[in-house]
Specification:
Elements (H helix, E strand, L loop, with lengths): L2 H17 L7 E2 L2 E7 L3 E4 L2 E9 L3 E4 L3 E5 L2 E3 L2 E4 L3 E4 L10 E3 L2 E4 L12 E4 L2 E3 L2 E4 L5 E4 L2 E3 L2 E4 L5 E2 L6 E3 L8
Parallel strand pairs: 1-3, 2-4, 3-5, 4-6, 4-7, 5-8, 6-9, 7-10, 8-11, 9-12, 10-13, 11-14, 12-15, 13-16, 14-17, 15-18, 16-19
């Protein structure tokens, strides 16, 4: 796949995510949130855990935030730019899997706040939309994930690892696994 095609597919995923409502995320998260959240979630620094949440407007993460998502359904996708750590469905911390309805775009995540854990862990979850990973600095685990819409990577410092577990991806894959 040419670089231009990769950029085009990534742009399509981002446009779809923005039009799905995540850009209007309005409820700030600091601490643990659960239950129905009608207008989306924005995390702009600090710690946020979505535990058994039903988010109806997407999630927007920025500002070095440490975010954990367990047993939740996110309608409207996820945009993360500059998170410190993003942990989704990690069995190692007793976190149940999740469902994301909409594209997921994660960019510019740092090297991680909870070493030696990966700075991005997308595990045991279903992603009903493309997953786009760009410009991330730390290790990235994609393990036991079901992704509809493709898995697109560019300019990450590390290749992905799957912790020895299979992923099911329908759509284009432009990422390498270690």
């Amino acid at each position: 796949m040419t670089r231009m095609k990769q950029l085009f597919l990534g742009l399509i995923a981002v446009v779809g995510l923005l039009s799905s409502g995540s850009s209007s995320a309005a409820t700030p998260c600091s601490g643990v949130m659960s239950g129905a959240i009608d207008d989306g979630v924005v995390v702009s620094g600090g710690f946020c855990q979505l535990q058994g949440a039903l988010v109806k407007g997407g999630v927007h993460v920025m500002g070095g935030a440490f975010v954990v998502v367990c047993g939740s359904t996110i309608n409207g996708g996820l945009v993360s730019d500059g998170a410190g750590e993003l942990i989704v469905g990690a069995e190692e911390i007793g976190c149940d899997g999740n469902v994301f309805n909409g594209a997921v775009r994660i960019s510019n995540t740092g090297t991680g706040l909870a070493q030696p854990a990966p700075s991005i862990a997308l595990e045991r979850s279903t992603f009903n939309g493309a997953v786009v990973l760009t410009g991330n600095q730390g290790t990235i685990a994609v393990s036991e994930a079901r992704i509809a819409g493709g898995l697109l990577c560019s300019n990450n410092v590390f290749d992905l690892f799957n912790e020895g577990n299979q992923n099911l991806v329908s759509g284009k894959i432009s990422c390498k696994f270690q």
